Amino acid sequence: xxxxxxxxxxxxxxxxxxxxxxxxxxxxxxxxxxxxxxxxxxxxxxxxxxxxxxxxxxxxxxxxxxxxxxxxxxxxxxxxxxxxxxxxxxxxxxxxxxxxxxxxxxxxxxxxxxxxxxxxxxxxxxxxxxxxxxxxxxxxxxxxxxxxxxxxxxxxxxxxxxxxxxxxxxxxxxxxxxxxxxxxxxxxxxxxxxxxxxxxxxxxxxxxxxxxxxxxxxxxxxxxxxxxxxxxxxxxxxxxxxxxxxxxxxxxxxxxxxxxxxxxxxxxxxxxxxxxxxxxxxxxxxxxxxxxxxxxxxxxxxxxxxxxxxxxxxxxxxxxxxxxxxxxxxxxxxxxxxxxxxxxxxxxxxxxxxxxxxxxxxxxxxxxxxxxxxxxxxxxxxxxxxxxxxxxxxxxxxxxxxxxxxxxxxxxxxxxxxxxxxxxxxxxxxxxxxxxxxxxxxxxxxxxxxxxxxxxxxxxxxxxxxxxxxxxxxxxxxxxxxxxxxxxxxx
Length: 491
Description:
- It is a single chain.
- With 491 residues, this protein is an alpha+beta fold.
- It is built from 17 helices and 12 strands.
- The model is unreliable at 476-491 (pLDDT under 50).
């Protein structure tokens, strides 16, 4: 009885096992080992992935389009940061100081902070990481310097894995304490490195595993698929060119002869006359004569066929899915409205998540600039305890119906669910400046209407509901009250 129970228990465990953990002779072996993240993405592997990703970004239209979309919907015209401390007066001054600084953000060039964000987002997509060094300019003002990932490396004087991993110097807890950047990229000269403390470096990347110190390109799971797509296109293009070069094929009793052979005149007949001379005589402008046993047919190519095109579409969709950007955004096609909204909602979630990661890193730039402003600008004194607090506004969302979304946005604003700061920040504008501009325009319209003896509605198109309410109020008001009401009413 005990033997039977043991046997049943053994076979029960056998049936309940994880089949995915077993090697089957009917399937290919899955390579790979279980190890730390830094061993999976070694220096050589990461560098090779970056090299291929940069190549495809330069030479592949699909990758270039995905990089454009990533930049457009993660930073857009630039993530907008606004002071959000407990002091309204401080918020106004800090935001003004920040806006002024953004014009001169770049240490190495004339780019402003919003333009630099576009480079940051695109580099993050292609390389998988980018470094921002917090530094100062010649005038001792705060500046930032962008450094690409290939310039962060372990110096030859240090041993990889002993306190430093792929250019990132770490302490005993595994926390980065410094970064080593290559100063000179000239292979003919001695390489020099600059050590920068981690407090002054913002390393923008998205680690997918614990213990990952360097980023890898977003394209890393589809690099081989992109390579296959390029190979297929090159082979099909070669076949298409070969087909275009052959217009007619002449079949003889002994084989085939093509137009190229006719032009070379290298094939001879048994009567010692070249076959090209014979066919030149035969193929006159009107009469076509072939020798007995010969036939001519027009060459037609059917490549790429439907199956090949479907396979291309599958690979393209696979590339887009591997990155996270829907194929419908990369290569728009006609699909029904419900499916389009579902696709764009998923895309919007993807871009919003990536945008939040960028905002979290770039917020350190805001804090660095404002902290420097506290020391340099007398207008930023005294700061409140929470002077570092700020809010970031993402760019405009992915949408399919601008009018519908605009109406929804207005309804949300009127109901109090959204603020003007949220709305204006999506297009890179400051709500204070826009309201001031609107007030100045309305004041000018009112002054112009009074000077010309016109109604304001005759100069600018007012909201019909507001216009009806204003006319009703003017009708009910007495002659002495209308002027005061007009001055106090909102145009």
